[in-house]
């Protein structure tokens, strides 16, 4: 089964990145074919994702799960992959082959990621792998500046989209008759041109 967007994340626990992914899936599921791949199984939000009738596949441990991840890519043949948080971002980058034609988006929240491996390892991974992503999304301008400085990627490759965790408390305007939230509308602005170019998919934009 081909999907338009494959989301890749570390787990589905109660964190900001996980909640933002849930919001994206909730808003996008009627516009695109979606699937979610997680490195760690289960998580407090898994039942919420399952209620959206979106397929969830488990990868397993980060580095030993590369083969499983590659099989998932072959199965779904996504036009876009969006990875959230460092482990998922690194998996998406180091697994990418030159001949892969999907559009790779990496989403990074914090300026300094607190990894088990330490900040030096994080900085090394950024320098070695960041250019494999087609687009990096930061949650603030300061985070975007830090990512550019550490990774050395060109300025236009890093964009800022502010978080929409509390989107349910915002006024929901009826954009294009679809009721798309402001937070997700920015993502539609990214996804739609890519999918229209690659697969001729018509969306509300």
Rg of Cα set:
16 Å
Cα-to-Cα separation, first versus last residue:
25 Å
CATH superfamily grouping: Glycogen Phosphorylase B
**CATH C-level category:** Alpha Beta
The CATH topology annotation reads as Rossmann fold
> Any low-confidence stretches, pLDDT <50, length ≥5?
165-180, 199-205
At CATH level 2, the architecture is: 3-Layer(aba) Sandwich
Tally of distinct domains:
1
Helix content: 25-40%
Characterise the protein shown here:
The protein has a single domain, classed as Rossmann fold (3-Layer(aba) Sandwich). Strands 3-2-1-4-5-6-7 form a seven-stranded parallel beta sheet, with helices on both faces. The protein contains seven helices and seven strands, in the order βαβαβαβαβαβαβα. α4 packs parallel to α5. It has 205 residues and is an alpha/beta fold. α1 links the parallel β1 and β2.
Précis, in short:
The protein is of the alpha/beta class. 39% of the residues lie in helices and 16% in strands.
């Amino acid at each position: 089964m081909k999907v338009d967007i494959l989301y890749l994340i570390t787990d589905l626990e109660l964190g900001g990145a996980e909640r933002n992914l849930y919001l994206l899936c909730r808003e996008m599921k009627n516009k695109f074919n979606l699937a979610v791949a997680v490195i760690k199984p289960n998580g407090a939000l898994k039942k919420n994702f399952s209620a959206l009738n979106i397929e969830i596949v488990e990868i397993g441990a980060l580095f030993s799960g590369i083969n499983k991840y590659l099989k998932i890519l072959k199965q779904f043949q996504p036009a876009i992959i969006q990875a959230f948080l460092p482990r998922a971002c690194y998996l998406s980058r180091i697994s990418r082959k030159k001949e892969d034609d999907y559009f790779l988006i990496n989403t990074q929240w914090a300026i300094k990621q607190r990894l088990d491996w330490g900040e030096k390892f994080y900085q090394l991974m950024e320098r070695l792998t960041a250019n494999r992503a087609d687009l990096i999304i930061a949650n603030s301008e300061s985070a975007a500046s830090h990512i550019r400085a550490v990774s050395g990627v060109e300025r236009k490759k890093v964009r800022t989209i502010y978080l929409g965790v509390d989107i349910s408390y915002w006024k929901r305007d009826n954009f294009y008759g679809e009721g798309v939230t402001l937070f997700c509308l920015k993502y539609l602005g990214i996804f739609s041109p890519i999918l229209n170019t690659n697969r001729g998919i018509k969306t509300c934009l």
